[in-house]
């Protein structure tokens, strides 16, 4: 995989997801990369309008970043294991749960770093640990539950 191609560009270039869809010009357009060691990593530069009203990054934006970065690692894991999207689906899995802890304020003026890894995986569901950090400290952390998406 070419290093300049994000996991989003590889697996769902036409997706219009607000957080990570390459095709949503008004979205956050998160770009995640496989680090070759089973993790996905990303850097995200906040915009001033992502303010939470206290001069820090809004909690909903943080949750979206954690959700969407975990999507990247889940989609990559699914591809590696031979669990592609089912016929008619753009994605192989969908978020079924997201348990977020806001540990410290996250900055608005600096890029933040995301890291995610799959804790457990069956074809039915996966569990992911995902962290948002800045300046060497975890700012937010989440456990995400992903379930197989079956179009109906
Ligand atoms: C305040 C608390 C929740 C609890 O902390 P405590 O029980 O008091 O524990 P403790 O004192 O141990 O501090 C823990 C760590 O936190 C740091 N710190 C604390 N205060 C400050 C400060 N003022 N400035 C800078 N840092 C501060 C503190 O230095 C320490 O870090 P350290 O170990 O030294 O490196 C803290 O965990 C936190 O800020 N989390 C992030 C919350 C967050 O970003 N939420 C989402 C956005 S809100 C939203 O979007 C929703 C909304 C919008 C509009 C309207 C309404 C809602």
From TrEMBL:
Keyword Hydrolase recorded: yes
Pfam families, A to Z: 4HBT
Keywords: Hydrolase
Chain coiled-coil ranges: none
Domain Thioesterase span(s) in chain numbering: 55-131
Keyword Hydrolase in record: yes
Sequence similarity: Belongs to the thioesterase PaaI family.
Protein name: PaaI family thioesterase
Originating species: Nocardioides nanhaiensis
